[in-house]
Every structure is written in C-alpha cells, then in structure tokens.
Design goal:
The structure holds two protein chains of two kinds. Helix content of chain A is about 35%, strand content about 20%. By secondary structure, chain A is α/β, with parallel strands linked by helices. Chain A has two domains: about 5-35; about 55-185, Glutaredoxin. A seven-stranded mixed sheet of chain A has the order 2-1-5-4-3-6-7. The longest helix of chain A has 23 residues, at about 15-35. Chain B has two domains: about 30-105, Helicase, Ruva Protein, domain 3, CATH 1.10.8; about 115-150. Helices cover about 50% and strands about 0% of the residues of chain B. Chain B is mostly helical. Chain B contains five helices and no strands. Classes of the chains: A alpha/beta, B mainly alpha. The interface between A and B is large, with 43 and 40 residues.
C-alpha cells in the first residue's frame, strides 16, 4: 500500500484510494455507535420449545400451597409455569400481570428458584399469590432442565406437558393478551 | 464529553430488557458449586468441561470463572453428572439441547461458523495469487527498478 508501482502511478488516480481509510473508520465508528445505542439482546432462548417437560417433583415451599410435579401439567388444560423468586425485583413488577391472568381463569404454577420459605411468604403476602402450586428449586435444577436462563420466565405448557412457548423477562401489562393468545394456541 | 459518555452508558444499560442479574439470592451454594470431586481424575474432567461452558448470567465468562449462583448450580450439575459416570461431551450436549450452541465455548463447524474456517484459507489463496502475479511481473521486468516492490 505504501509504495505503489511507480509505473502505474502516473496513469491511475489515487483519489478514491485516499478515502478508503476514512471510509473504513466511519464504518467502524457507525458499528460501535449502533452497538451502543441498540445493544444486541442478551436473552437466551430455550431450545425446549415443542419438547415435553422433564420428569420432576419439587417440594412445597409456601405455607398454603402444595409442591409441584410434572403430573400437574398433564391434566389436559394448558397452564403457565412461572419461574420466579422472592429476591428477584422484576418478579414483583410482574405480579399484577400474573394476578390479572389468574383472574381471567389461567392456572399458574410457580417454581421458586433458590428461595427461603420465610422470604417467599413475605413476597407472596406483599405481591399476591396467583399460584395453584409452588415447587421449591433450591439448586436451579428444573430451571436448567427446561432451558431457562433467568428469573422471571414464563412457559406455556399444553395439556399434555409439552412446552409450547417461553416468555423471557417480566410479563408487561401490554403482554397479557399475548400470553392469553399463546395459551389458547396451546389448547388447540 | 465524559458526562455524555456516562449518560450514553446509563441509557444503554436501561435498555436491557431483563435485569435480574443485580438481585441475588441468599441461599448457600449448591453442594458441588465450590466443592471439588473427591476423585482427582473426575475433578480434572469436570474442570476442563466447566472452563468451556458459558455462564448464562455473566455471558462473557465460563461457569468455572463466574460467581453467579446460576453458574454455581451449573457446576453442581456438571460435577454430579461426572461423578455419576457421564462423559463431559454428554453433559455438554445436554446443555446445548437446552440453551443452544451458545452455551458452549468449544468451537464447532456448523452452517453459521463455516466462514470463520473458510476465510483464512481464502485469504491465503488470494495472497498467493497476488504474490504470484507480482513475482511474475518482477521477473518479466528484469531491471533494477522493479525489484523495489519486493519488500512489500
């Protein structure tokens, strides 16, 4: 690049090549800027969609709710599996939306990740308890087995125990309809 | 300038959809999160595998490096399964079946990654062609002036 062929130097115009480094720099700058303004999603989607839930049996953790087993998801009616924890702040943000879903007749089962009974009871007292059953997952084993990478996450499970949809992050007020649609789809 | 950069960074972190990584639980770590397996050979296998598995919370780190509780729970699963006689590749596949190829740092040849392997070969090929053209011209010239280009 530094020493062009002297023979062709007189014939070829260097004009366009002169702009190349600047062009590359602008392109690089734009790439970095776009990366800053619109960062790529860090969500990790579960690969278990369309696959049956693994066999599991979780101990109860809440005072007045039974534990959770796989059999709870094979009753013929689609339901939600909500992965949550009392120490998770977005889970509290999500609570009104879960309450609304429960009010509309949706059955919600909870998996409490790495939680203590006293913390969980305080959380449910403060944020409401939309769950039919809550299983305790103190080592994230079920969470890992269904491909969930964080809390909260909500899975739509059809009546046969097959995972049909994964919602990553808290369910926002305008996403309640989406969850209802996915439940309806799973019921067909 | 720095203020603006800080503001941009703040805006950047605010746009991240889920931010559960900052809250953490208070439960003690899983049995094999920070405890090595009694058998050194098994522990070595588990350690080698853990260094090539991505932490799902601190996504630039391996689960061997991360102190996130989910990483601890993943180490617990790796060590428990190694102790039960599973091979490291079986465990890697178990995780890939759940989280996709992203969870593994081990490079593999797939439809997405083949350009990474093909590009160096392609560049070498192009370089060889360019050089051949250059050497030919230099030889054809045979005068003192053209040898100057050889240093490039």
């Amino acid at each position: 690049m530094t020493g062009p062929d002297p023979a062709s130097d007189t014939k070829r115009k260097p004009g366009l090549w002169l702009w190349l480094p600047l062009g590359l720099f602008v392109a690089f700058f734009a790439l970095v800027f776009i990366g800053l303004v619109r960062p790529a999603s860090r969500d990790i989607a579960s690969q278990m969609i369309g696959k049956p839930l693994p066999e599991f049996s979780l101990q109860p953790i809440a005072q007045d709710r039974p534990g959770l087993t796989r059999a709870d998801f094979t009753t013929g009616k689609p339901r939600l599996l909500n992965v949550f924890a009392s120490w998770c702040i977005p889970c509290a943000v999500e609570a009104p939306q879960l309450a609304e879903l429960a009010r509309q007749g949706v059955e919600i089962e909870g998996v409490a990740i790495r939680d203590r009974p006293e913390d969980l009871d305080a959380f449910l007292k403060q944020n409401g308890n939309p769950y039919k059953a809550i299983g305790s997952d103190p080592t994230s084993s079920i969470q890992l087995a269904i491909g969930s990478a964080g809390v909260p996450e909500t899975f739509v499970i059809d009546g046969k125990g097959v995972i049909r949809y994964q919602h990553i992050g808290d369910i926002q007020p305008d996403q309640v309809g989406l969850i209802l649609d996915k439940l309806k789809e799973a019921g067909q | 300038m720095i203020r603006r950069l800080v503001l941009t960074l703040a805006a950047f972190s605010a746009t991240l959809g889920t931010a559960p990584a900052f809250a953490d639980d208070s439960l003690p770590p899983a049995p094999y999160a920070y405890t090595q397996l009694p058998d050194p050979a098994q522990e070595a296998k588990a350690q080698a595998l853990m260094e090539t598995l991505r932490c799902l919370v601190c996504q630039g780190q391996s689960i061997a490096d991360s102190d996130a509780s989910l990483a601890g729970d993943m180490r617990n699963i790796v060590r428990t399964r190694i102790a039960a006689g599973e091979s490291p590749e079986q465990i890697r596949q178990w995780l890939i079946d759940r989280y996709g190829q992203y969870v593994s740092y081990k490079p593999v040849l797939t439809a997405d990654t083949w350009p990474l392997y093909a590009a160096p070969v392609l560049f070498l090929l192009v370089a060889a062609l360019l050089l051949r053209g250059r050497f030919r011209r230099a030889r054809a010239g045979e005068t003192g002036e053209t040898t100057e280009g050889e240093g490039a």
